[in-house]
Amino acid sequence: MTVQFTDRPDPARDDAGIARASTWDVGTPERQRQAVDAIRKAWESREWPHPGLLSYSVHVGEDGRTLLHYSQWSGEQAYQDFVREGRDVRNADIDAAVPGIERRASHTYELYRSGLRTEGDTREAGCVVIVDVEFAGPDPARQRDWVDAVFEALGEDPHTPAGGIAAHFHVSTDGTRVLNYAEWESAGHHIEALAAPGEGVVGSPSPLWERVQKYQGVTGGGVNRYTPALSMEAGAGA
Predict the structure, then answer these.
(1) Backbone angles phi, psi at 31, to 5 degrees
(2) pLDDT (tens digit, 9 = 90+) per residue, 177-209?
(3) Which residue of 45, 54, 77, 177 has the fewest C-beta atoms within 10 A of its own C-beta?
């Protein structure tokens, strides 16, 4: 199988058993660009590594130093096969081109719920907002209840932020985290949504949103904006 470059990943695809998300700290905007180029070259110079890898995407952090890696897999075994057989050789090429990359902890997720774009919406995501939520200890029921609370608040919110396209809520397989992969038209739209009333979060002030923001057991998290830079999947070639 060959490497095929695509516009964007589809976080809601129904054949993905798991998703992996991690960040690399490369230090500067110039090194961000160099790392994306090195990743492209390391991948396009080889065959697609495993049929169970469904997509692999890289996003450039607004902070000028990080890269977000988001990949979708048929299941955990496919990922472990790649780690054993194909990851190190690609990383060696990338490290040779951009020495000193700090690879931060990665996490395994399952997609739980998506708020999808309306039918006929053809807008492209110029910005991906990653919302990380951390909980005090593993509790799959708590993960899902928090996500459900977000959807309840969204459903009762009379003001839909302009520029929001879709949101994909993932729960970590260890029961301790939630990741929202949110697609926006632009970073500016997200910044405007945060500036609206609501204590620096997207959503109108309401008891339902207050429940989300003050949910018992949440210990940390963060919000970071990224620009999609590179997305790949298996091509049809031999």
Answers:
(1) -70, -30
(2) 999 999 999 999 999 988 876 544 566 678 898
(3) 45
In whole angstroms, give the CA distance from residue 154 to residue 33.
36
Q: What is the 3-state secondary structure (H, E, C) of the chain?
A: CCEEECCCCCCCCCCCCEEEEEEEECCCHHHHHHHHHHHHHHHHCCCCCCCCEEEEEEEEECCCCEEEEEEEECCHHHHHHHHHHCHHHHHHHHHHHCCCCEECCCEEEEEEEEECCCCCCCCCCCEEEEEEEEECCCCHHHHHHHHHHHHHHHHHCCCCCCCEEEEEEEEECCCCEEEEEEEECCHHHHHHHHHCCCCCCCCCCCHHHHHHHCCCCEEEEEEEEEEEEEEEEECCCC
